[in-house]
Every structure is written in C-alpha cells, then in structure tokens.
Design a protein that fits this description.
Elements (H helix, E strand, L loop, with lengths): L2 H22 L10 E2 L1 E4 L27 E4 L7 E8 L12 E5 L6 E4 L13 E5 L23 E10 L8 E12 L4
Amino acid sequence: MSKKCLRLTLWLLAISLISIASVNAEPSQSKVKMVALNLSFVDAEWDGKIIPKGQNCKEYGGNGASPRIKVNNIPSGANKLILEFSDATYSPCDNGGHGIISYQIPKGTAETIIPSIPGQTFNLPDGFTLIKEHCGADLGMQAGAYIGPCPGWGNLYYVIVKAVCESPENSKPKLLGSGRLDFGTYNHY
C-alpha cells in the first residue's frame, strides 16, 4: 500500500470515528429557557417615572426604603430572588451598586410580593440576605445593604430581579428568569 493510500485510509477512519462520537454524544446539560419576570409596584406612590419624595438616601433627608415589588411568572424551580439595585446614570453605582440582596421563596411560588427593604442598614427583614452592600459607603455615606436614590438630579434608578435555583450541589445559583423595573428619576431638592 502506498503512503498516499495509507494517509487517505487513516484520514477516512478518523473522520468516521469523529462522526460516530458526535452522534452518540450526550448533551452535557439541557438548555434552560429563560423566563421574563413580570415586575410591578405595589404602592401607588411609585410610578416608575419620578422617585417619590422622601424615598431618597438619608444624606439628603430621605427615608430611602425600597418599594414593595410584585413579581409574577416566577419559574417553578426558583427558590430565591436576587435583587440588584442600581443607578443607571452614575457608573460607580450601576450594576447592583445600590446593593445586591437575595430574597428566599418556596419552590413552586409563581407570584410574590417582595417587602420593602429599609435603607442604609444591615438589619434586613426576615427572608433577606445581603450579597453585596451599596456603593455609598465608598462615597462617605452611611453603610448598609441598600441605599435609596441619592441625588444627582435626573439620575435613573432601577432594579433587576433574577429568579434562581440555589442548591448545595451547585456552586453557583442557576438563573431561571429575570426582569427589570425602573424606579424613575430623582427630581427633588
């Protein structure tokens, strides 16, 4: 057999083995379909346009508590909601910079109301766990888990809510769904 013929035979054999392996291979993990969470305010004073007067940070005379949020369309496998509070206008406090906090829910919960979280404290209501404290402490403000909108005039504040399944077997929670709710802009001085 010539060298050319031998190379061709080995090449065809390799292609055949690769084809057989790919046909018999099991998918490593089935893809999870992401669900869009439906988010809305429970309290009428929050309209998603203007931050209600007094709901800003303590340094500007406010109460700074988060709004109560109604969450619908929660995937049945979720056992925790992760809330990432942000200021879209001020990059050091975007992407969860106003605090990242989890809220425990029973598996199978399709709808829930997330209670209000007090601002600039580490004393969280039952069911909540701190993941990352707010950015205000780096700016000389009172530390805590969540910080309410803190002026800049016209800054846009929002929250991303993620539905996850957390289990001891997973080193990282499995993301099942998410949604965004704009709190509005700050227009009070």
